[in-house]
Design goal:
Belongs to the peptidase S1C family. With 456 residues, this protein is α+β, with helices and mostly antiparallel strands. The chain contains nine helices and 23 strands. Strands 2, 17, 18, 19, 20, 21 and 22 form a seven-stranded antiparallel beta sheet that branches. Strands 10-11-12-15-14-13 form a six-stranded antiparallel barrel. Strands 3-4-5-8-7-6 form a six-stranded antiparallel beta barrel.
Length: 456
């Protein structure tokens, strides 16, 4: 399956031994699992069965009372059967519905559960719904001024003089206005390598943008422009409440500014998808929303919007393969917000630093594994091979050496470099002491490393 980023020129045939796990900087917060869809119960329609002909017979007072009791009992059973799946859905997915049923349980446990599941709203984002769910044209008209075109300008070196040319275009969304400055979210791959970034505004004007911060692994970047002429910012919603089948629209600039602010409509095809992507910092498993709303080259960095007019995702990927249609992916808004907060605050995402270069063991020839690394049996083709250890790094201080094979981190199995990054970046932070199980010459060793903050 060919997973491609819009507007991204991939480098093929990369040498695997050069993959750097120097661990660029990552979000230290764990990913939140979106709620499972709640099935709507099938409504049972009540039919009137009480009509009987007076010409047929008369009911006595006792018969009427018995009939009434029978109907009451049936009605209670009918209501109980109808309410059962609803209560089960509410109890299992109260966060999705946004309600909390009154149940006789311990209040302390309720408070703990609520604090664990309720997403924290960043103060850098507006959350107010901006439109009526049934009026898409009005919603689009209301949001259009927050959608921008992003042009990546790069300098190429010719024989006589430097040439400046547009390397690619994408989309972005204005999410914050603060005094004389306004801020835009887009994809990292839209602006990566840019010598200069220009923004095309809704009114047709263009302006230069400054890259405040970007992150290759999460494919997000924040740009700054003058707030002159910026009257509105986009509102962001809670992506954890999304369910498959909900209507969404995408607004962006497919194939460039010629088709600026193109609107496509579709549904959420799936939540909690994981797509492996290749980035300038190595491979990464990205958590995404799947949609069948058309996403084409140039849509990257633009918003995916729910029926309330709120941004619930940033469009980033599509699967381009013969015979495959309508497989687009967006970064969930709940994943976007904490990364953007860090980019605004520090210009980068702070991630823990281990200090090793590594490759997947599946890429190491078995003959080398057996004859040089001393591995055998079920030790083969598992874990990641440590190609190099940076002097003075946490890995070096822990006693890790080139030629070691990392098979576990904090008790969790490691199969690929992507596995190690995922655990390291989402379950650990600078200052933590983590344990590694390694194979050295076929023997198991346990090493403990105190992580530091990446300087890059």
């Amino acid at each position: 399956m060919d997973v491609r980023r819009d507007d991204e020129r991939k480098r093929e045939n990369e040498q695997p031994l050069q993959e750097e796990a120097k661990i660029p900087q990552t979000a230290s917060s764990e990913e939140q699992e979106p709620e499972q869809p709640i099935k709507k119960p099938e409504l049972i329609m009540k039919q009137d069965t009480d009509e009987q002909s007076d010409n047929m017979y008369k009911e006595t007072a006792a018969a009427l009372e018995n009939a009434k009791e029978t109907r009451t009992a049936k009605e209670k059973r009918r209501k109980a059967s109808w309410l059962s799946p609803i209560l089960g859905g509410i109890i299992g997915g109260g966060l999705v519905l946004g309600i909390s049923p009154y149940l006789p349980v311990d209040k302390h446990n309720d408070a703990v559960k609520e604090s664990q599941t309720e997403p924290k709203q960043s103060q850098n984002f507006s959350t107010k719904p901006v439109t009526d769910a049934d009026n898409v044209p009005d919603m689009v008209e209301d949001l259009e001024s927050t959608i921008v075109g992003v042009s990546n300008i790069q300098t190429s070196f010719g024989f006589s003089e430097d040439d400046v040319e547009e390397s690619g275009t994408g989309s972005g969304v204005i999410f914050k206005k603060d005094g004389k400055k306004a801020y835009i979210i887009t994809n990292n791959h839209v602006v990566e390598g840019a010598t200069k970034v220009t923004i095309s505004l809704y009114n047709g004007k263009t302006t230069d943008a400054k890259i405040i911060g970007s992150d290759a692994l999460t494919d997000l970047a924040v740009l700054e422009i003058s707030s002159k002429g910026i009257d509105k910012v986009a509102s962001f919603g809670d992506s954890s409440k999304l369910r498959a089948g909900e209507k969404v629209i995408a607004i962006g600039n497919p194939l460039g500014l010629q088709f600026s602010r193109t609107v496509t409509e579709g549904i959420i095809s799936g939540v909690n998808r994981t797509i492996e992507v290749s980035t300038s910092e190595g491979k990464w498993d990205m958590n995404v929303l799947q949609t069948d709303a058309a996403i084409n080259p140039g849509n990257s960095g633009g918003p995916l919007i729910n029926s309330g007019g709120q941004v619930i995702g940033i469009n980033s990927l599509k699967i381009s393969q013969t015979g495959v249609e309508s497989l687009g992916f967006a970064i969930p808004s709940n994943d976007v917000e904490p990364i953007v907060d860090q980019l605004l605050d520090k210009g980068k995402v702070v991630r823990p630093f281990l200090g090793v270069q590594m490759i997947d063991m599946q890429q190491v020839p078995e003959q080398y594994q057996q004859n040089t690394l001393g591995l055998f049996g079920d030790q083969l083709n598992k874990g990641v091979y440590v190609d190099k250890v940076s002097p003075g790094s946490p890995a070096a201080d822990a006693g890790m050496k080139a030629g070691d094979v990392i098979v576990k981190m904090n008790g969790k199995s490691i199969e690929t470099t992507s596995d190690l990054r995922k655990i390291l970046y989402t379950e650990a932070k600078a200052g933590d002491t983590v344990s590694f199980e390694v194979l050295r010459k076929g023997k198991e060793k346990t090493l403990k490393a105190k992580l530091t903050e990446s300087k890059s």
